[in-house]
Amino acid sequence: MYIFMVCIILATLVGNLTVIISISHFNHLHTPTNFLLLSMATVDFLLGFLIMTCSMVRSVEHCWYFGELFCKIHMSMDIMLSTASIFHLSFISIDCYYAVCDPLRHKLKINTFIILVMILVNWMIPAGFAFGMIFLDLNLRGAEEIYNHARCAGECFVFFSETSGVESSIVSFYIPGFVMLYIHRKIYSTAKRQARSIDTISQKKMHFETKNDISFGRERKAAKTLGIIMEVFLICWSPFFFFTATNPFMNYVIPPILIDALVWFGYLNSTFNPIFYAFFYTWFCRALKMILFGKVFQQDSSRTNLFLE
Questions:
Q1: Is the pLDDT of residue 208 over 50?
Q2: What parts of the sequence cross the membrane (predicted)?
Q3: Domain for residue 308, yes or no?
Q4: What CATH number is associated with residue 271?
Q5: What is the 3-state secondary structure (H, E, C) of 143-196?
Q6: Which residues span the domain enclosing 92?
Q7: Range with the lowest mean pLDDT among 55-64, 119-128, 191-200?
Q8: C-alpha angle with apex 166: 160 to 171, nearest 5 degrees?
Q9: Structural domain tally of the chain?
Q10: Is pTM, for the whole model, over 0.90?
Q11: Residue 249 lies in a domain
Q12: Which of 88, 176, 278, 303 lies 20 to 30 Å from 80 when distance is taken between CA atoms?
């Protein structure tokens, strides 16, 4: 189990660290959209470095060795970073919506200031929600006796009452998930309509390609990538949040070991995110090669255009 979980953690750290280094180092990647990707990669990296490492010891040893105060800090940061990662995905879908459905005004609507506001929201709301819930014991509201009876010494797990379980699932998963589904449906219908229009135009002008066609192709590719990321996100996190919302109403019949396994299944979403960049973005592959071969230490390497063939 340790070997298996260490592999997951290393994949999460290496993948997201590569995204962080790539966007931070190369000047051509300094765009508002990529700043949002950079923020999400930072969240996923911290989730792997700060949360998954301690969760690994807890999951394998079935015991918490780091004290009660750090247990609360760990639970708060776990909820915060997991929620922030999901929030980033929903805001990335909003950015993709404007890029595909309103490309002429995309840069005007999604500028650096708007992205900074998005990033601030992605960090502050999950932080206030998570730390407020755990340190004010709002997650135990109405179920204090059940918690005291169920909790054993040396354990560290997030316990939800009926109310807090539903509220946590709605805030952390169902609202951003619904936003992603709705926006992706709009993107899909718009992209399909635009594709038919371009096919019609292409039949009239053979062997003629414009910058707009290239740009549209990139946006369609981004929309396709978003769709796959969204599907993986739903697969990874749906089981955990479903049982989080329903388990209190079923008198906590779900064994803790299963809940813990579903948490790790959700963590995999942060592992998979940078992998999709490697498959669908050529700039990521080229940046990865330059990082692996140490070319980022060469003079003026930050000016390398990763989009050139």
A1: no
A2: 6-23, 35-59, 79-100, 112-136, 165-183, 225-243
A3: no
A4: 1.20.1070.10
A5: CHHHHHHHCCCCCCCCCCCHHHHHHHHHHHHHHHHHHHHHHHHHHHHHHHHHHH
A6: 2-202+210-303
A7: 191-200
A8: 105
A9: 1
A10: no
A11: yes
A12: 278
